[in-house]
């Protein structure tokens, strides 16, 4: 288990690395999949084609890191992502985590600068004999604008319902449903490489319940194939 001070130090090193990448190279869109330990960051815009990313999430209860692959249609109105990585809870061992998410964004306003869409995802992990499942579903609203000919920035917000479930086997299970939200920013400073920063917050699980107990910070770096 990683101590909280070590986790913060790791977070600062990760943020510094991302800053170096931005300065020396840097977002189009992130490839966040719905993995435990990662915040639910969802833009209303998807990048056409394939995108590959590395993600890091940190909260008081756990941290998570891993990789993801995303794909979007040419119109940018439909996309999805799949990923896998490590989930490190405050109590318990590090385990493999997986996740996937889809997003449909049919609405565009103000000359394509504002988008509105809906998304749903599912992810999980197995710790000892307990299966852990998390499934968010909600809406996303995003605003994007170009910076020069090859760069862009997009800000977005995504309220959603988060279902967290523990399956103990033999039909025994525990389910918690909470209303959460997230805000994020995607910044494209090169045509193919970018970063995402975001934060998830909202209702928290009660004592003795499984589910998020506070905010989750996330950072990602992605590469887009065009």
- The value of Rg in angstroms is 17 Å
Order of helices and strands: HEEEEEEEEEE
Structural class determined from secondary elements: mainly beta
Average of per-residue pLDDT values? 85
Which segments are poorly predicted (pLDDT under 50) over 5 or more consecutive residues?
12-28
- State the helix count: 1
| Beta-strand content bin | over 45%
> Helical percent range?
under 10%
Shape: globular
Strand order of the largest sheet: 1-2-3-4-5-6-7-8-9-10
The largest pleated sheet is described as: 10 strands, antiparallel, barrel
Distance between the amino and carboxyl termini: 40 Å
Describe, in plain words, how this protein is organized in 3D.
The protein has 226 residues and is mainly beta. Strands 1-2-3-4-5-6-7-8-9-10 form a ten-stranded antiparallel barrel. It is built from one helix and ten strands. The relative contact order is 0.22. Helices cover 9% and strands 61% of the residues. Mean pLDDT is 85; it is low at 12-28.
Summarize, please.
Helix content is 9%, strand content 61%. The chain has 226 residues and is mainly beta.
Spell out the key features of this protein:
globular, 10-stranded antiparallel beta barrel, 226 residues
Question: How are the elements arranged and paired?
Answer:
Elements: H1 4-24, E1 49-59, E2 62-72, E3 78-89, E4 95-109, E5 114-127, E6 130-147, E7 151-169, E8 172-188, E9 193-202, E10 216-225
Antiparallel strand pairs: 1-2, 1-10, 2-3, 3-4, 4-5, 5-6, 6-7, 7-8, 8-9, 9-10
